[in-house]
User: Fold this.
Amino acid sequence: MSKKIFVFFPDGVGLRNFAFTQFKALGEQKGHQIVYWNNTVFSLKEELGYDEVTIENHSIHPLTPIYSRIRKHIELNVSQNKFNDKVYATYKFPFSYNGLKNTLITFYTKLLIGLNSSEKGIVRIRKRINSLERSTEKYQYCKAQLQEHQPDLVFCTTQRATQSISALLAAKDLGIPTVAFVYSWDNVPKAMQVVETDYYFVWSDLMKSEVLKYYSFVKESQVIVTGTPQFEPHYDSRLLQQRDVFFAEHNLDTAKKYICYSGDDETTSPLDHYYLEDLAHVVRSLNTKGKNLGIIYRKCPVDTTTRYDAVLEANTDIITVLDPIWKPMGKQWNEILPTKEDFALLYNVCAHSELVTNVCSSTVFDFVAHDKPCIYFNYEQPQLKKGIRDIGQNYKYVHFRSMPSQEAAVFCSDKKELEHLVNEILDGKLSNVPDGKKWYEIVAGANPTQASASIWSAIENCIKK
Assistant:
């Protein structure tokens, strides 16, 4: 059953899962022709030699971003009322009143939110977005590409990009089956489902239940549990470097044990650099008590701020910077794109660190895949003031309710406890790994090594239908 599959990249977030893993090779082994329908600045043909059809027209309707924000606010309002839960209000970003244009847009946006905050209102706004996108030149452009190449199915690598709407509408209007992969573990409760497709592929039973819970227009038969390729590289032992080789390559000290500090983006953790500083103080203290420790600092791949610089410069003797191997392909944060080489780097950072510390990151799962513990910082910094986001609200988000117990991560809720917790982990007296693995299975599914194969099986079943 050889079929032509368009693997659609509306933006670069899907590259890691669907261009750099075994996904393509498995599809070709099944006899399928895989064409990357590419809306990004990353050339799959030039960089990887892959067959691609490039979308040159990137112009969505100028009103689509406004209506998309309206849709998101309405969906969050409906969820807040439906489930009597104030957490949904914390997913909203503040409106802008900076200048006359932004003020007018804000008033217009709030008016339409007020008039449409219901299930029926959501349907009206989604229809309006679809109507706007069908009126664009991009819609006609994508439709012509589909008519020329005639794929048997379009597989969209993320459900959250407005750039994908017109292309998927064109496919649906031509009768081509469409699939959207729900990209991240926290996306569904946050009202980040921008597109409407024939099928939705999700990580786990948990995520399937969430899609059905939040989107009444989606039928159970449309949601298929496949797992995610995101964690597959952690099980590829060919990526492992010997400790002395990895340490020599990155100027690490083989006499030291290392703690990974995984940086966060500025929105999630605006005071993130102070937690790195706290960890540095703890490492210095423990080193005076007989330990021999260092810190590997791996920044958030899309963080371009300088906020860590002072801490890094003051601690060059104990902090080694190992930046993710991502490439800036443009000026926007979403144009900083992953590379295949980063798989090996992350694998070895996990393998050769004793534990990871961070603020609410999914790196807890990367490390638990290597049987390594994770400390979540969960205390306020004294620099917190009005207008700066408190990290504590992160742990109140819906996706953290999936934890089977509070022992699924080691929570540091008091800075004074950080040294004790680190020491207990290093001495083998404390670990979140047992419950962390249970949490990992709840979120990512029971077969993290088989996700790509599962996705191909699901694609074939969707074509048969």
In short: The chain is about 40% helix and 15% strand.
